[in-house]
């Protein structure tokens, strides 16, 4: 029986060099799609997460073929060379990335300190790339056309993709049978609750400013506007608002840590604030900036529908949740809901340095 199973696998397994190059392509795809998924919160982006899952499970099969083929070089110390340690490390990290991803989708509940399994999966996934590049320096072999062409090869890759799709569906089913509910992003719902205590305080990278003195704090509105504005708490707080009307919106917050919650957010529409500053017709983007230097840019028409929130669930925002002012950005992931806002800049183009800013903000 075992021999028959092995022979069946052999028929599906592509040639060694094709396996190696397929692993490289899928790892790069998983890394890129994983990074893109961090900012993909709209339901229209659901296909990105679907393909990420299928590619990951297909990668499991290819890594299995690879490990089986090289097992003797690892087990027999006489076959070790100067690159064996890096190769073993790559295998361990890759298996950890795949395993934690599968466990998360299957409904496994494990936390490592403040990290969920999803956080751990992301960390291992990002770590795979540099180790793989080191591995390639010594194990690189130019691909051959013969390894990829022909009807048999097409059937083999078709079978691998079918396996990935079926396995992806199976892990989703396992999670559902355990009662695990997930959005298309992979995030799980928090228990019902309202206000600041209903969801965790999380920060992107090192953002952790001291509490802000609202007596001296103000929001500046600048850039492509005819009337630059400086607005204090009295102009924005719904209990004191004088310049713009307040509004309450029920919006879902989906955090890249793997949870989501829907809350009632109260504040002023960013569009009303922009209108009060007379935006130029040439404006196309709006950059929202935190006191920490963290910032993100949004198309101006989308930004107009966002909320500059001072309250959540009828309570004033706590410091950890972004007081005195945070952005509420529907269909955007949590890290794009900028906290501790102190400025809004209207621009002709997207801020090209925002990705650097989100990595170094809070360290200054």
TrEMBL record:
Q: Looking at the keywords, is Transcription present?
A: no
GO molecular-function annotation terms? oxidoreductase activity
A Pfam family per the record: Oxidored_molyb
* SUPFAM superfamilies linked to this entry: Oxidoreductase molybdopterin-binding domain
**Which residue positions does the secretion signal occupy?**
none
Q: Which residues cross the membrane?
A: 21-40, 46-65, 86-106, 112-134, 154-171
Q: Which domain of life is it from?
A: Archaea
Entry-linked CDD domains: SO_family_Moco
- Keywords, in A-Z order: Membrane, Transmembrane, Transmembrane helix
Kindly provide the name given to this protein in its UniProt entry: Molybdopterin-dependent oxidoreductase
Q: Does the keyword Metal-binding apply?
A: no
Ranges where the Oxidoreductase molybdopterin-binding domain occurs: 211-355
């Amino acid at each position: 029986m075992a021999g028959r199973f092995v022979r069946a696998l052999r028929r599906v397994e592509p040639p060694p060099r094709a396996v190696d190059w397929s692993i490289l392509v899928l790892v790069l795809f998983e890394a890129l799609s994983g990074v893109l998924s961090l900012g993909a919160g709209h339901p229209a982006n659901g296909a990105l997460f679907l393909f990420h899952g299928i590619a990951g499970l297909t990668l499991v099969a290819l890594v299995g073929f690879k490990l089986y083929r090289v097992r003797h070089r690892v087990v027999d110390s006489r076959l070790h060379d100067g690159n064996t340690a890096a190769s073993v490390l790559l295998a361990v990290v890759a298996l950890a990335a795949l395993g934690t991803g599968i466990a998360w989708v299957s409904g496994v509940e494990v936390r490592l300190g403040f990290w969920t399994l999803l956080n751990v999966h992301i960390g291992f996934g990002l770590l795979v790339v540099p180790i793989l590049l080191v591995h390639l320096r010594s194990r690189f072999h130019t691909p051959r056309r013969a390894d990829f062409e022909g009807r048999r090869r097409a059937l083999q890759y078709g079978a691998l993709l079918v396996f990935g799709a079926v396995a992806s569906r199976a892990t989703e089913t396992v999670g559902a049978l355990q009662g695990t509910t997930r959005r298309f992003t992979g995030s799980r719902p928090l228990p019902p609750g309202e206000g600041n205590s209903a969801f965790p305080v999380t920060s992107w990278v090192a953002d952790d400013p001291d509490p802000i003195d609202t007596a001296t704090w103000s929001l500046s509105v600048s850039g492509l506007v005819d009337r630059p504005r400086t607005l204090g708490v009295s102009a924005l707080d719904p209990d004191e608002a004088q310049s713009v009307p307040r509004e309450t919106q029920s919006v879902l917050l989906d955090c890249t840590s793997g949870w989501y919650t829907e809350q009632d957010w109260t504040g002023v529409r960013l569009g009303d604030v922009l209108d009060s500053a007379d935006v130029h017709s040439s404006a196309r983007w709006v950059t929202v900036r935190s006191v920490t230097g963290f910032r993100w840019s949004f198309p101006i028409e989308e930004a107009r529908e966002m909320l500059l929130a001072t309250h959540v669930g009828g309570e004033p925002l706590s410091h950890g949740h972004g007081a005195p002012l945070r952005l509420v950005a529907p269909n955007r992931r949590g890290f794009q809901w900028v906290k501790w806002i102190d400025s809004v800049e209207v621009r002709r183009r997207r801020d090209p340095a925002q990705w650097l800013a989100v990595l170094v903000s809070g360290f200054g």
